[in-house]
Each structure stands twice: as C-alpha cells, then as structure tokens.
Amino acid sequence: FGFMFDHIYAFELTPFDPIEVYETLIPEEYFSAYHWINAGVSGDPNNRMNPLKSILKQFNQDDLIIFKLDIDTSSIEVPLAYQLLKDEATKGLVDHFYFEHHVNIKEMERWWGNSMQGSMKDSLELMGGLREKGVGAHYWI
Hints:
Low-confidence stretches: none
Largest sheet: 3 strands, parallel
Order of helices and strands: EHEHEHEHHE
Structural class: alpha/beta
Number of strands: 5
Radius of gyration: 16 Å
Strand content: 5-15%
C-alpha cells in the first residue's frame, strides 16, 4: 500500500480460533495494528456493535479512515451505508468508503440471491451523496 495502517478493525461473524487468526492469518507487518472482533456488526446506529458508532468515535478529522463494507447482508450493509451518508457525527471522519452494493442486477442474481436490494440508480445516488460530503466513495459489483 505504500503506508502502514495504525489500526485495522476486522469484524467477522464466523467463529475463528484466535490463535489461528493471530499466528497464521494476520501478516506479521499488520499484527500490531490489527483488532480482531469475532462478532457480527449491527446496522442499528444505537447498537455498540455498529462500527460507525463504536470505532469512529475514537478518531478525528486528522486521521485517515478507510471504511470497507462487504458483509454480504444487505439488511445490515445498506443501513450502515446510509448512516454514513446521513449521520452528521461521521462528517469529515471517513476519507474513503468501499462498498459492494448488492443491488438488483439480473446478472448477479446467481451469486447474490436474496441479498439484492435497491437499484443501480440507488447506488449511484448513494455514492454521489457521499462524494458531495467529501467522502471518496467507491463501489463494485
């Protein structure tokens, strides 16, 4: 990447043995920065497992914050994405946002199945709104 991360927060719902995570899965150069949270996230802005609430309150506008959202559960992902757009508390904190937005695209139905929600128009409006707020918003399908 050309720079080292001070903090990497990784939420993972699938149970993993912490020894396996820290001894074999995390590259040594990221070990000191890695925060492994073996639990799922919440899209509820008041839940402490909401990453925008639990993590971002620890940082300020001088920090470089890159937020990648890819948990393949639209019922959680979409509220988090719109929280980033609408919640004034996050304004100026997130510098870059990466999101696999599972919108209704026939060609992706095979892989996304029931997780599809919304349209490409919705995705473009979301990304455009975030960019207007100063967030470098990027998505992929």
